[in-house]
Amino acid sequence: MKPVIALTKGRLEKQFLAFLESLNYDIQPLKEKGRKLQVETEHFYAVFAKGVDVATYVEHGIADIGIVGEDILLEFEPDVYDLLPLPFGKCRLAVAGEQKAENKFAKQRIATKFPNITTKYFRERGKSVDIVKLEGSVELAPLLGLADDIVDIVETGNTLRENGLVVKEEMLSISARCIANRNSLKLKKAILAPLIDSFRIEEVAI
């Protein structure tokens, strides 16, 4: 029996494969997967999904462990075990907007993909804001008058600068996380431990 790992498609997927390669895992089957969403390697089965779905597959035991952005854990609070941070996927969650923009609304309006994190952040600071939930290109919201500011993930800041926006407040630093199904950790400890331990060794080294 092999562990099942759920991987977040896209940027985190590529960074995780480079991480595995640095640990001397054979990742050739993953590199050559094409459009396959399930791949078997020498050491584990991998399934590929969107970040929030990775957490869902792990929560329900379809996958034993998952590689997901910390923002997913903070926003959706899935019932999973947060094992450890990984040395990639590092970025910031920040409030951003036009540098000299005035408040267009009676109450500050924030556009974001992360309504729960955003609401909690401002509530802890004694501030009530109106949240506009968007799924993508949140940078457009202040430019088109939908919101005063945005809350979004910032990696390099290039997208903000190219759209005339600046970071106003840095909320928190986030990274990729290794998560696990709670039952799998108990019932499949023997097969999961070597894989998880290899990630921990790299964590200490970095």
Automatic annotation (TrEMBL):
**Molecular function terms, GO-annotated:** ATP phosphoribosyltransferase activity
- According to its UniProt record, the EC number is 2.4.2.17
**Chief localization:** cytoplasm
Q: Which residues form the ATP phosphoribosyltransferase catalytic domain?
A: 52-198
- Identify the metabolic or biological route this protein is part of: Amino-acid biosynthesis; L-histidine biosynthesis; L-histidine from 5-phospho-alpha-D-ribose 1-diphosphate: step 1/9
Q: Which reaction does it catalyse?
A: 1-(5-phospho-beta-D-ribosyl)-ATP + diphosphate = 5-phospho-alpha-D-ribose 1-diphosphate + ATP
Domain of life assignment: Bacteria
Which InterPro entries does its entry note?
ATP_PRibTrfase_cat, ATP_PRibTrfase_CS, ATP_PRibTrfase_HisG, ATP_PRibTrfase_HisG_short
Keywords, ordered alphabetically: Amino-acid biosynthesis, ATP-binding, Cytoplasm, Glycosyltransferase, Histidine biosynthesis, Nucleotide-binding, Transferase
Q: State what this protein does.
A: Catalyzes the condensation of ATP and 5-phosphoribose 1-diphosphate to form N'-(5'-phosphoribosyl)-ATP (PR-ATP). Has a crucial role in the pathway because the rate of histidine biosynthesis seems to be controlled primarily by regulation of HisG enzymatic activity.
User: What family does the entry list?
Assistant: Belongs to the ATP phosphoribosyltransferase family. Short subfamily.
Q: What is known of its domains?
A: Lacks the C-terminal regulatory region which is replaced by HisZ.
Q: Which HAMAP family match?
A: HisG_Short
- Name-wise, this protein is ATP phosphoribosyltransferase
- What is the organism of origin for this protein? Siminovitchia thermophila
**Gene giving rise to this polypeptide:** hisG
